[in-house]
Structures are given as C-alpha cells and as structure tokens.
Automatic annotation (TrEMBL):
Keywords: Hydrolase. InterPro entries: AB_hydrolase_3 (IPR013094), AB_hydrolase_fold (IPR029058), GDXG_lipolytic_enzyme (IPR050300). Gene3D superfamilies: alpha/beta hydrolase. This is Alpha/beta hydrolase fold-3 domain-containing protein. GO terms for molecular function: hydrolase activity. The keyword Transferase does not apply. The keyword Lipoprotein does not apply. Residues 67-282 form the Alpha/beta hydrolase fold-3 domain.
C-alpha cells in the first residue's frame, strides 16, 4: 500500500469506488435486527438530503437517546451508508435512535454547502426528535469521522452560539481536520502543529491528498463553518467530547490541539490515541488489532457520552457482530 490515494483518480471514479465499498460494507454488516428507514430532509434551498434513521427494537424505559452521525471522505466522497455499522451498534447497545445524515459534496458543491446541509439537518432532527421516537433529554450526541469530524466541531460551536434546542449533550470527534493552515490555529498552538510534516507521506491519506481535497472544497479557514476556534467565548459551553486520533495521520495534531483547546476552556474530554496507524485504518485496514480496538472504542465512547458505560465484553456481546470484531 502506498502513500495517499486521493490524487490518483478522477473524482467520479473515487466516488464510485467509495460507494461500492460502502454499499458492500452495508450489505455484509450484521443488522442486529435494528429497523432502518430512509427519508429526506429539506435543506434551506429546497434540496432533499438523504437521511437514514435507525431505531432500537425496544426503547429504554427512560426514553431513547438521540444520536446524529456524519460520514467522512474529504468533503469530496462518502455516503450515509458509511457509518451504518456504528449506527446499528449504538442503537443496539444503548437503545438510541440514530440518524445518519448526508451533505452535498465538493467540488460541485464547495464550502459552505456541507456545513449548511449538516446544520439544516441537525436543526430538523432537534425539532422532530419526538416524531423520530427519541428523547433528547436522555442524551443528544452528534459525531463524525474525518470531514464529518470537522462538521461535528463546527456544528457544536454553532449549536452553542445559536442556542440549539434541545441542546447537544456530547460530541464524537473522530480523526478530524480542524484547520488547513497553521494560521488557522490560535497562535499558542501553532508550534505544535507538526503532523502535516511528520506524516506527510502516510498510508491512506497523505498531506498531498489533504491539499488536493482542500482545493476541491475551498473552505474559508477563518469561517465559523470551518474553524472550531472562531468563538472562544462559547467554547466553555461545548458539551463533553470523545476524541479519537491516529498516530500516523497527517491530521493527528488537528485533533490533539482541538482537545487541548476544549480542555483549556473547561470542557470534559475523553481521548483515545492509536499509535503507529494511519488515517481511517479502522475501516481500510480492518483486521489490525488496533482497528478492531478502534471500532469497539467508538461504541464504548458513546457509552461515556450517554452516561451509560459498558465494558468491552458487553459491547462485544451486544454489538460485536456489526463491528466485525474477532474473538
């Protein structure tokens, strides 16, 4: 396996390859008998965004927590199928109602289409929680992977600033991008942003790939819709964050610095670091022990966010089939 890969193929080819992979993952993942519904949510411009809803067979007596998941793919590829294994596992393990949202992709729909779509979806989900069968008072968590991690960070920031009701109670920030230039970071952190250089030629995602994706997405690095560092005055009210980081990821320090930023504003955090592995190893190198631990840790981390912690053995028993865990 060589470094990177996003710069090797036309976008339409990458999208087809990604869709084929995600559809295969979807079709071969254990359903755990979790009912699933496909619906659309109207965006601010009338576009209908595909959304998948996963409901527990029987909700907890206290009510079903609400979870929103956001896929990754560099803002250029990816579908709502990507996080289905986690959606099913979280619904099964915690009796949660899980909503996997979508957003339009670059370069056809560059920044800020993605954060606008995610924010519109999040507001709709919050307003329609009851009709979805969820009770956000039992937990309202949003989370995402890679590009979805960025979209999670900025949605959490906006949710505090704009007083989203009901409020978020937790965020899952998985291998995120939080800046595209060192100038996009608060000055105090800039000397510690070294992983773009240290891991420039990493497997799966290289720094050249990140630059390619940045040019396709065209983000405003100083915008509240891309940078989670824009409003430090509201940072203290961001809910507890579960953060996962890959040690060989060029975006490693994006996540570590974001965690420091939250901690310094008094936000509770839980950090899991996976040394010596690249970006998205949990999906693209699935048989590694680290990858299996990572997938299990996602479900364990949601337990921490929801105030209903399980043991690793309990996760394996209840949801391991959806996570493809070896025993």
């Amino acid at each position: 396996m060589k470094a990177g890969g996003f710069t090797d193929s036309p976008t339409d080819v990458m999208r087809k390859q990604t869709l084929d992979f995600e559809r295969s993952l979807y079709e071969t993942t254990a359903s755990l008998d979790i009912p699933e519904t496909v619906m659309t949510i109207a965006m601010r411009d009338g576009y209908e965004s595909e959304t998948r809803v996963f409901k527990p067979v029987s909700a907890p007596e206290a009510g079903s927590p609400l979870v929103v998941l956001i896929y990754g793919g560099g803002f250029v590829v990816g579908t709502s199928l990507q996080l289905v294994p986690f959606a099913r596992a979280i619904a099964k393990a915690y009796g949660a109602t899980v909503v996997a949202v979508s957003y339009r992709l670059a370069p056809e729909c560059p920044f800020p289409a993605a954060p606008n779509d995610v924010w519109d979806s999040l507001k709709w989900v919050a307003a329609n929680a009851t009709s979805l069968g969820a009770d956000p008072s039992q937990g309202f968590v949003v989370g995402g992977v890679s590009a979805g991690g960025n979209l999670t960070c900025v949605a959490a920031q906006k949710a505090v600033k704009e007083k989203l009701s009901p409020p978020l109670t937790g965020i899952w920030v998985c291998i995120p991008v939080t800046t595209v230039t060192v100038e996009g970071l608060p000055e105090k952190y800039r000397d510690d942003w070294v992983s773009r250089t240290q891991n420039a030629d990493a497997l799966i995602l290289s720094t050249a790939d990140i630059d390619f994706l940045r040019d396709a997405y065209e983000p405003d690095a100083a915008s509240e819709d891309f940078s989670p560092f824009v409003y430090p005055d509201v940072a203290a009210d961001i809910p507890p964050a579960f953060i996962q980081v890959a040690g060989m990821d060029p975006m490693r320090d994006d996540a570590l610095i974001y965690r420091r930023y939250l901690q310094e504003h008094g936000v509770k955090t839980r950090l899991n670091v996976y040394p010596g592995v690249p970006h998205s190893h949990h999906t693209l190198l699935p048989t590694l022990e680290s990858s299996q631990n990572f997938r299990r840790d996602v479900v364990l981390g949601f337990g921490w966010l929801l105030g209903h912690e399980l043991t690793a053995d309990e996760v394996d028993e209840v949801a391991g089939a959806a996570l493809d865990l070896c025993h």
